[in-house]
UniProtKB/TrEMBL annotation:
Domain EGF-like: 455-494
Main subcellular location of this protein, as a coarse class: membrane
Keywords: Cell membrane, Disulfide bond, EGF-like domain, Membrane, Transmembrane, Transmembrane helix
Sequence similarity: Belongs to the TMEM8 family.
Coiled coil: none
Compartment annotation: Cell membrane
Domain of life the protein comes from: Eukaryota
Membrane topology field: Multi-pass membrane protein
Species per Swiss-Prot/TrEMBL record: Cettia cetti
Originating gene: Tmem8a
Protein name: TMM8A factor
A GO cellular component entry from the record: plasma membrane
Residues covered by region (Disordered): 286-312
Chain segments annotated as transmembrane: 507-532, 592-611, 617-636, 652-673, 679-698
Biased composition (Low complexity): 288-305
Amino acid sequence: SLYVSEYFSQSAQKLSFYSWYGNAKLFHFHVPEDTVLLRWLLQASRGKGPECTSMEITVHFRHGAPPVINPLGTRFPANATVRPSYSISITLSSAVQNTTFVNVSTPAAGDWFIAAHLPEAAGRIEVKGFSAPCPYMFQADMFVLRLTDMPVLEPGVPMPHTVVSPAKPLHVKVFVPKHAAGMRFQLSSCITSEQRACTVRVLLGSITLPQSFQRSLTCSGSINCSLALDSPPWEKWLQIMVESLGTANASVSVEMLASFTVCRPGSTSSFLNFISLNQSQAGGRPGAAGSSAAAAGEAPRNASGPRSSCLQSQPVVREDLDVVSVRYRLLNGPSVPLSSLSPTLLLLNLNTGMDSGGSLVVNLLLNRTSVSLANATVAACVSAASPVLSLNATQNCSTAFSQGYPLSVSTSSAEATLIVLYPQTDDWFLSLQLLCPKGQGECPSAEAKVTVFAYLSPCFNDCGPYGQCSLLRRHGYLYAGCSCKAGWGGWSCTDDTKAQSVGTQNLATLLLTLSNLMFLPAIAVAVYRFYLVEASVYTYTMFFSTFYHACDQPGVAVLCIMDYDTLQYCDFLGSVVSIWVTILCMARLKKILKYVLFVLGTLLIAMSLQLDRRGVWNMMGPCLFALVIMVTAWVHHGAKRRHCYPSSWKRWVFYLLPGITLAFIAISVYAFMETNENYYYTHSIWHVLVACSVAFLLPPRDKHKKPWAWSQKLTCRYQICQNDREELYAVT
């Protein structure tokens, strides 16, 4: 045999601490057919700075779909099927880099996914650019060893083969036809090159993670040994590996035989289904539409005739709605007629390669009035690759190489729902059959009707009222995840273990919005001292900060007067411009220069915020530049007057020092104390401290300006008018 090795690599990704599925970094690979060995090369590294500490990286593997993980130990939604993922841990301690190999023999062909993440996030809100987090990088490479000329085992034809040595097992494959109800593998004429009885081990099927259903068979001596499989995967190549357990230098000759039992379905013909589809999509001519609809309506009764076949097939149409959004529609109506003689089969096509990133929802609703036999139960199984053709009261929905998901409805419990998170890429089948209690003689004639609703959505229930469904992308592959808020957690934001109460949500909204009213004293001081431009900026900041935080709330207490992004931008712009104009006002510049700097600085701040809204230098840059201008102006004033500026000790003790202290405390709270849990009161403290510091730091009004008085303004205006009249009279 000729083996070919292939190598696949993807670029490294920077890992994140885990708080929701979007923090896990996904790698998507495709394993080719006839692969006999798969080796993962996992490389993890970290930075060399002092902030980098020992870290444990968790890596999850899954075949067919992204792995379903739960690092936080939260609850999944009701009726959701969860099977633990296969995972390993990679520790980065003293070494800067760690290399790990993971081997998988006879892997299943198709899509394989790897997800990697760091431990749970601490919840601290870090200011971008203020601190440099340690970079943890992860890269996954894939090596495959593929057999180019794997022998094909023809069904029903005995095939002799030789196992050269225990180190070189024999690989063959057989194609499983559609509608195969069972498979029987038989091995005979096993003899070694030394004419002795041999011992071999046969492995049927491929390895899939997190669960592998590979079947094993050990044969000793020359007697025949066989293995029967129920419901093998339809229209797929099945790998068979035979390895010798004898001496190292002895070859083994065996003869293999594979046979299938086929289950022919009874259903409507393809032509009549096509007519029914056309009539359901759009109506044609009145006469033709009536005759076609009548023929299609009679088809389910006449085509299959009496229920003599081993299964009944119902035609299903796949309707693509959007990205990772599919609806399945039954051509003969949502109600499916069932009997106890044979199961009814529905095909749910999820093999496009882009359907595994959502949630498959199957809902069954029993029509109680249609059940002709009391105490009867409808059993159902949802399975991938092959259907479950033998349903009974004790069945566990298992097929030859997979484990399905059971459902049941009865007159006492008429509805059942199943949620499959990240269904693997494959053909999915829904098998239904009516089961009768023991001792019921009328069971063969019993019937029932079940309404079936099946659809694929990006997020189940759109993540609920306390979550946001986000569409994630890794290269060309799309998948969805829920980002929860207000303390809710879980895969679909249904875990209320740490959820905030409505009262807590209202309190958080009131604190974050009403704390902005502390700008009113600063506005009043600015107006009293004739700083009207500064007062306008503070009013702008107070308004947009109030309504931005009213719109930014995660719970039910939310009010958005305009687009969220617009409110956020205006809030950030107002905050930075308020600091800019306050420091320039303290510099006591000439009016024309001050207003030019006001406008120029505001334009530059608006540009920098558009480039990076959360960068620390968008706030620190204008602050430092304004402080340089202020210190330069104060030195100039002091040198000109030949004494310290500001000259009054009362100004320093009662205004400047308290204002500077409040500003430093506010910066410390903003940069070091905010977390996701205490955000609503620490950020409210930031609002109060900044607004109070502005009121203290604003300089006094110019000495030549009188206090604000409307009467003086009116008198002055009348006096100007009187002077003009006197001047005109004098000229005349």
